[in-house]
Design brief:
- Strands 3-2-1-4 form a four-stranded mixed β-sheet, sandwiched between helices.
- It is built from 15 helices and four strands.
- Helix 3 (about 30-65) runs antiparallel to helix 5 (about 75-110), helix 3 (about 30-65) packs antiparallel against helix 10 and helix 8 (about 140-165) packs antiparallel against helix 10.
- It has helices spanning about 1-5, 15-25, 30-65, 70, 75-110, 120, 130-135, 140-165, 170-175, 180-220, 225-235, 240-260, 295-305, 315-325, 335-355, and strands spanning about 265-270, 275-280, 290-295, 310-315.
- The protein is elongated.
- The chain is mostly helical.
């Protein structure tokens, strides 16, 4: 039973799976939204560009019906006239075509965004399987699509009835109007009715869009095993991650060791801990710790210090306090200022003595470390 539960798709799609699905051309799309946008843009385009288009088309039609006899029998003149007619026809329809082109792009992009995928263009033999096609025809999804289609018909039928009721009196009066006025009036009624019916399809799209998003998310859901496998592929196997962490630690240690020659003093435990401190009164407010380590790392720090003739001070309590309270490249805590100042004062005086600038200082025996900074 546990094995069956583990195969249920209960986990939300990961970012990697969503990205992979997008690369394969799988994104949520609503055909109803695209249809609504195209119909609505087209109806509004006809409403706004009708005068311009009809004026150009009427002029084009009039020009084609007043050709002279000489022009009709002149081949060159007819070719020129045909080219002019084609140009005028394209100019008259260009604004409407441009609007429809924009609608055909905005509709699909409105849900899912812009996407061009080569994988989506590749043919799939599975789509040509007749048995799979029959299975899709008699599936639950097909019943849902049938119910959606019936709902669309009902919405459009209801919208049509409302529009007819609204314009019933206007349509009755068309027979009493002059022919020219009746044609313009009927054209206006038709265009406004088309806009209203196109707007009604937005109700269908408003239901279909959330449904498509839900179906898309449901389709990409993952099983717990898929989530674990993807995590392994993305983050790496445990042994690989362990090796990476080991390499990172080694690189960090090498960087830390390269800082030891810059230290002013090394304070040791004397064998289990070692910390390297640096202090420049002109550029630093307080001493900072350049390196620290225990056991073999502490031994390595002492070896580097000896090679570069850096003073090594044995103070177990202070070494442990700095080791446990201070991070690399950070300043020492305020509670250790006095203790570290005693050590640095001794180191700087000893450095001056070796240069012949003063008496030899006394080795600091009683270093004042606060009791709350004692570590075992």
């Amino acid at each position: 039973m546990a094995e069956d539960d583990s195969q249920e798709k209960t986990e939300e799609a990961s970012g990697r799976k969503l990205e992979k699905a997008r690369e394969e051309g799988q994104i949520p799309r609503s055909r109803d939204l695209t249809t609504s946008v195209v119909l609505l843009f087209g109806a509004i385009g006809l409403y706004y560009f009708a005068d311009f288009m009809f004026a150009r088309i009427i002029g084009l039609t009039r020009a084609n019906f007043i050709l002279s006899r000489a022009t009709i029998f002149d081949t060159n003149a007819m070719i020129s006239h045909l080219a002019s007619a084609i140009y005028e026809g394209m100019v008259s329809m260009m604004p409407f075509f441009a609007l429809m082109l924009a609608a055909s792009i905005i509709g699909p992009v409105a849900l899912g965004g812009w996407l061009f995928s080569v994988d989506a263009l590749q043919p799939k033999l599975s789509r040509m399987d007749p048995m799979a096609g029959l299975k899709r025809m008699f599936s639950v999804k097909s019943l849902i699509e049938l119910a959606k289609a019936l709902a669309k018909v009902a919405v459009l039928f209801g919208a049509t009835v409302l529009v007819l009721k609204f314009y019933a009196q206007d349509m009755y009066r068309l027979s009493d109007e002059e022919i020219n006025i009746a044609i313009l009036h009927s054209a206006k009624i038709s265009i406004v009715a088309t806009i209203a019916l196109s707007a009604a399809t937005l109700l269908i799209a408003a239901v279909d869009v959330p449904l498509q998003i839900y179906e898309y998310a449901k389709k990409l859901k993952m099983t717990k095993q898929e989530t674990r496998d993807e995590s392994k592929d993305t983050d790496g196997k445990p042994e690989v991650k362990g090796r990476i962490r080991q390499l990172q630690r080694e690189m960090a240690q090498r960087r830390m060791m390269s800082k030891v020659p810059e230290a002013d003093v090394i304070i040791t435990n004397p064998t289990h801990y070692a910390v390297a401190l640096k202090y420049d009164p002109e550029t630093m407010a307080t001493p900072i710790m350049l390196a620290k380590g225990g056991d073999h790392i502490a031994l390595k720090i002492r070896e580097i210090a000896k090679a570069h003739k850096i003073e090594i001070i044995e103070s177990p309590v202070l070494a442990r306090a700095i080791f446990h309270t201070t991070e690399l490249e950070h300043e020492i805590p305020a509670g250790l200022y006095l203790a570290v100042a005693q050590v640095l004062a001794y180191v700087f005086q000893l450095r001056n003595h070796r240069r012949g600038r003063g008496d030899k200082p006394k080795y600091p025996r009683n270093i004042n470390v606060p009791k709350d900074m004692y570590f075992d």
